[in-house]
Specification:
Elements: H1 2-13, E1 19-20, H2 27-31, E2 36-37, H3 44-48, H4 51-56, H5 60-88, E3 92-95, H6 102-109, E4 112-117, H7 140-165, E5 193-195, E6 212-214, H8 230-237, E7 243-246, H9 255-269, E8 273-276, E9 291-294, H10 299-302
Parallel strand pairs: 1-2, 3-4, 4-5, 5-6, 7-8, 8-9
Helix pairs in contact: 5-6
Length: about 300
Amino acid sequence: MQPYVALGAVLAERGHAVTVSTGQGFDDLIEAYGLTAAPLSLDMLAMMESPEIKAAMKSVTGWFKAFRSSQDLMPGQLCDMWSVAQRVAPEIVIYNPKAFIAPYLARALGAIAIPSFLQPDFVATGSFPNPLVRPPDLGAFSDRLPGKAMSGLMGLGYGMLLGKWLPRHPEVAARPRLGAVDGYHRAGKAVPRLHAHSKYLVAKPPDWGEDDHVTGYWFLPQQARFEPQAELAHFLAKGPPPVYIGFGRMPSTDAYRTASVVVEVLAATRTRAVLTKGWGELSAEASTGDAHVVESAPHDWLFPGAVG
């Protein structure tokens, strides 16, 4: 959520009224930057801790069970999105392709839909393999093919859900079909596609179009001076600058094993590190002389002057 709140904060500074819609549990973050929160009914935090999602991380069978479960949840989420869209009546919708109904809703409201991506994995390219699929190395063709295949499978899955939902909501036109990664312009013009990663990490591939813009990361400004806990301050002060290891929002299937591997690698390489738990369920007991585990710490404080 943070990148979208960061983008919304900049838009608000430039005079736009910004509403951010996502799952439950993020209203405080959104409203802290003067934006309007429009939560959907899904509690993402609780869902990520569900047995189905944890099982999905362990086996292909678990993944299919989680997929079937998500099929049951999605119709309600699509209704939520349509309800929010009607209430807000936006002129522009900036969306992640996971909100694949956004172009249809924008068209129904006479708005513009602009797709955005936090990782370079939705738009196919021959410059590098899709990070989610690693085929045999056959050059640019093998790099582009998985991206195309993923787009096709994604379109098929989204199409099945839309094929059930749209006929029940004739006020949202089903035809002509719209692509989740293509966006929508009410005048039929091309729309920009925003890739919110650093060009220093992944440069814009030459086979992406002129409407694809690698913008750099969307960072939130630091709201207040951060005061670290005494243990963290002591760890940082007693040796050379450490590396950072974070587990983001992915729950761990075996937190103890994960912590053990990390600690072993740090010891073997004689590397100091700060570890943030995220949803990784790491324990503070994983802290050693080389590793210090914290619940969280602001990245702009950990990495002052970092380039986006």
